[in-house]
Each structure stands twice: as structure tokens, then as C-alpha cells.
Design a protein that fits this description.
By secondary structure, this protein is mostly beta strands. The chain has one helix spanning 2-18; strands at 21-27, 35-43, 48-53, 63-65, 68-72, 80-84, 94-102, 106-115, 124-129, 134-139, 142-152. The protein has one helix and eleven strands, in the order H-E-E-E-E-E-E-E-E-E-E-E. A hairpin with a 4-residue loop joins strand 9 and strand 10.
Length: 155
């Protein structure tokens, strides 16, 4: 019996080690869709990438290192073609571009499409206030309000 409890306890600890915290943002007005931010979603081998998901994201993998940019292929699955910390590297990129900035009071993701002729303008921005949990999505000239909170994944 003690051995069985030890095994169950070990499985629960291992299961909890796999779970992590994400930031879930719900629209405060009807008609919006959920946004999820994962500040340690994946690694490119050199740095941790933060990612955002929501209906406003299209034709890119919206992940970037803190203070940098993630560059996506222009077609197909639009997976990441690379990441950079230098804005100059965006000059000749053709495809989706996402950026991520973090301060003590704010998280900011932005995304757009680069046409190979310079740094792209943002098509959308999502900015979350780390102190009060409010957030704003600016997309196609419209601002939508959100309420965010950190949640532990179950598995």
C-alpha cells in the first residue's frame, strides 16, 4: 500500500512539473475571442520565446524572444524561419513578423507582414498591464478591452 501511494505521489509531482502558467485574457465585451500568452512557450536553442494566440493572428507563428522579433515563412504553415534581436535583420525579410516586449508593468506583442522593403508596420498590438490585469487589442483600427489572469495548466 505504501509503495502504491509513493508511485501515485511521484506521478502527481511529475505531472505538475510538466504544467506551467499561461496568461489567459477574456474580452470584456461581447463578440471578442480569448487570447492566450505563454511567456516561455518554446526555445530556439539560444533563447526562450514568448508566444500569443488569438483570432486576430494569421499567416505567422506569433512567437519572439524578449526584446526581439520572430520571423515566419510567408506561405504554407507559416512556421518560424528565424528570430533576431536586431531590427536591421527585418529589412529583407518577406513574411510575418511578431515582436515581444516586457517591462515591470507591461507585456506587449505586435505583429505584421514584412514585404522585404524595410521594417514592417504593426497590423495588430496586444498590450497587457501586469499590475491590474487589463489589456487592449488594437486591430484594424479598433481597440478591444480584455481582462487577464495567470492560470496554471492542468497538464
Amino acid at each position: 500500500m505504501l509503495r502504491a501511494l509513493t508511485i501515485i505521489g511521484t506521478c502527481l509531482v511529475a505531472s505538475n512539473a510538466l504544467a506551467k502558467s499561461v496568461i489567459v485574457c477574456e474580452p470584456t465585451e461581447a463578440g471578442g475571442s480569448q487570447v492566450v500568452m505563454d511567456l516561455s512557450a518554446r526555445s530556439d536553442g539560444e533563447s526562450t520565446l514568448a508566444c500569443i494566440s488569438g483570432d486576430f493572428v494569421s499567416d505567422m507563428t506569433p512567437c519572439a524572444p524578449e526584446g526581439g522579433w520572430g520571423m515566419s515563412f510567408p506561405t504554407g504553415s507559416a512556421s518560424l524561419s528565424g528570430v533576431t534581436m536586431r531590427w536591421q535583420d527585418l529589412d529583407e525579410h518577406f513574411g510575418g513578423v511578431a515582436s515581444f516586449r516586457k517591462t515591470s508593468t507591461e507585456l506587449r506583442f505586435a505583429g505584421g507582414f514584412a514585404d522585404g522593403s524595410g521594417v514592417p508596420e504593426d497590423d495588430w498590438t496586444f498590450t497587457a498591464n501586469r499590475l491590474d490585469g487589463t489589456a487592449a487589442l488594437v486591430n484594424e483600427g479598433k481597440t478591444s478591452a480584455y481582462a487577464c489572469e495567470a492560470k496554471e495548466q492542468l497538464f
